[in-house]
């Protein structure tokens, strides 16, 4: 099946630092979604991308849909303690009937 | 964003009993809902796709007789774990698709199932 490689697996940063994580796929996707999950909760949608090259921001978060349609990145600027959590990328390809393929997740820890 | 309500958030049951989990889309109609299972510090594993008014489509390796899915209306899907065993203990999460050209997937808050 389709595979998504998400990196890094974990990050330990100081409050105020910028963060970058990315996902690459073995196939072309037509949608990329980025989610954040807190412990014991469901994932919350952060940013949705639908076009190659699309760059979208949501507050301190910025994500881009790669030109090749096989990758996407998420940046968090000026991190704060509440950014702690697990971040997942998810992709959907044209014939997946709405099903998402998820990356392995990036565990973010922010030290005050 | 859209709201998906999932209940219960936590359930503890005895081995051999059945547990029903509800997933409701509160502010939009969802013809398609998805059920996932998640182990600690791992990614989400798709179990099945639930389509309103038709039978669910299960992923390979997921027992359809064990994990019964019903999607009787455009806003409600249920997952019943039948004859639960300790190995069924897990975090179960539902999601609902907004449909349309710029389709988004919204998740419920999850259900932590513990089978004793």
What does this protein look like?
The complex is a heterodimer of chains A (112) and B (116). Chain A is mostly beta strands. Helices cover 0% and strands 54% of the residues of chain A. In chain A, strands 2, 4, 5, 9, 10 and 11 form a 6-stranded mixed sheet that branches. A 5-stranded antiparallel sheet of chain A has the order 1-3-8-7-6, with no helix packed on it. In chain A, a hairpin with an 8-residue loop joins strand 9 (85-92) and strand 10. Chain A is globular and about 45 Å long. With 116 residues, chain B is mainly beta. Chain B contains no helices and 11 strands. In chain B, strand 4 (32-38) and strand 5 (44-51) form a beta hairpin. Chain B starts with a strand and ends with a strand. The mean pLDDT of chain B is 92. The A-B interface holds A 31, 33, 35, 40-45, 48, 50, 86, 88, 90, 92, 97-100, 102-105, 107 and B 1, 4, 6, 32, 34, 41-44, 46, 49, 91, 93, 95, 97, 101-110, 112.
Could you write a compact summary of the structure shown?
The complex is a heterodimer of chains A (112) and B (116). Chain A has 112 residues and is mainly β. In chain A, 0% of the residues lie in helices and 54% in strands.
Distance between the termini of chain B: 36 Å
Largest interface: A-B, 24 and 26 residues
Distance between the termini of chain A: 40 Å
Note the total helix count of chain B: 0
Number of strand elements of chain B: 11
| Helix run count of chain A | 0
Quick tags:
heterodimer; A: 112 residues; mainly beta; 6-stranded mixed β-sheet; 5-stranded antiparallel β-sheet; 11 strands; B: 116 residues; 7-stranded mixed β-sheet; 4-stranded antiparallel β-sheet; 0% helix; globular
